[in-house]
User: Fold this.
Amino acid sequence: MRKAHINILLMLMFLLTGCVKDSSINTQKTTVTFNDTFEAYWNGMNKNYLFWDLDKTNWDLIYQNYKPKFQKLDINNITDQQTSIKYFKEITAQLIDCHYSIAISYPHQLPISIYPSATRYVNSTNYHLPYIYYNIDSSYLDVGFVKGNYITSDQQNIFAMTGTIKHQILYFTCSQFGLQEAFTANSSNGVKLALQRFFANVDEIKQANYKGVIIDVRNNPGGNNSDLNFFVGKLINTSLFFGYTKYKSASGRFNYTPWIKATISPSTTNYTIQIPIIVLADNYSKSLSELVTMAIRALPKSFVIGEPTWGATGSLDGYGIYNDGSFTIGTTLNIYEASNQFKYIDGKSYEGIGFPPDQYIPYNEQELASGRDEQLEAAITKISSQ
Amino acid sequence: MLKKTFFFIFFISSSIHVYSQISVGFDVGEGINDYHMNLSNDQSVKNEPGIGYSMGLNTSYQLNSWSEIVFLISLLQKNYEIARTDSLSGAYQKYNNKYLQVPLFIDLKTGKKLRLSFEPGIFMSYWISSRTYGEIPNILSANTGKDANGNYYDQLTLTSFNQSVSLNAEHVNRFEYGWALGIQAEKGINALCGIYGSIRYYYSLSDTQEKYVLNQSPEYNRTMTLTIGIRFKTKIK
Assistant:
């Protein structure tokens, strides 16, 4: 447990201080100037950033204020490189895209990463360390629960666990999404076994007289977009409309496509789940976890318990098809950002805010240390009282 | 240049009372619009011209035996398409933009039975409405597949849309102006009636966007119309 905590702390240092220590130092002296780099960065953001219609950052003022500052810097001077990192932190501090980060690789410097939403979170009053809940949550499950791992094609280690609670409640959790890949893998793997068990239990909901379902996406940073349809699709028998998406349509700052309906197609089920479905979410539920939370919340008899999610409700274009989102500037800057904007069925964007729970149960480190998960217990109580 | 223009106008004006004649007519046809925008930094994308309708009423005022002033009120579409190419072909976004346009031409004519005109002019227009439709890959429709080599890939389906576009006054310039050029051939049916065909080109000089951000790339319409019409002449004394 202690070792796990140290690992978490190290991971958080990476996330929250925004500094990635990498063994590879860029030793190439570059002929590109800071003036060119800033110009390309400003124009790239102007074109690619998705949230200009929501963001309060005055991008024109950023240009006017920082262009002269960058002009004075020498990109091959280490002190000036540090100054530029300070400038980039100032420029990006209030950007609401919670996927947003910049990886900077200057000559003769270790790579540095800036992650504005993590910096904001660590300075907020709600801040707490991430917690791996399934270590204690397995104690709530009936004998015979299934858990296991799968290494995805991009080397992500996914953990999934499923079982029943008091033989009345179905429970499923996963450490991140990549479930469809695990499920369709030729080889047997722990995640596939957990999914097979969970889906079989979902198919037996009527016969087994289950009272509710708990989907736990706490401390889940998201993952493959395909899991939205794959996983949530198993819980529905008709298309589920849960919001809208839009993208950039051209180079202009406000050139957007129209809002396009976001719907999830049902998989193979031919019935609607009539029992309560509760999602457990926390401050570390990010990206696809937030979309899964919002999609399930659009179902009848659904409820969200825990904390507001991270607030990264856009998705990442891992396909290179949208002319927006992430971009690079030479070998110096790698800007990582959302490729679409998402608006929930209530017409609101939760980007930078986080999707709020219906029942707020804060993280309680002391109770968790004693082996008690108050958020899970609240979900069990909620289902039992229905 | 100004001096030459002045003398030209004076020369035409001086003969108005001799040849004054008013014609009214209407025409219908099609327009092809080329929308100039900066897509140089975009991958697998091209800007395609759009076809739309053009219809209008016109009044011409004959100045002398070889010239007349033509004033039009026309309703036309200035459409265009942003199409994806390469592996993304099939995805597109089309814009149908409706404009009310008022060009003013000076027709310089030659011929008798078949009168040919050269029409330099100017125009102003007002952007009435806009609609967009198309198909776009939906990131939320992703489905993981596996190719023959066992590599995983995500497949996105195209989602269609068809919506009106809000012409936000802060971002959109609804007024347009520019110069125009046309050629026309007219065949008289009788002394008071003639049919004609026109090709006109409208070259906008105004950005369709308000200047609302720094380093903004301007966007322009360039529209060519092909119309046929009928004109009725009324002599006045």
Remarks:
- The first helix of chain B runs from residue 2 to 14.
- The interface with chain A takes residues 37-39, 41-45, 82, 84, 88, 93, 132, 136-144, 146, 150-152, 154, 156, 159, 161, 163, 165, 168, 171, 209, 212-217, 219 of chain B (CB under 8 Å).
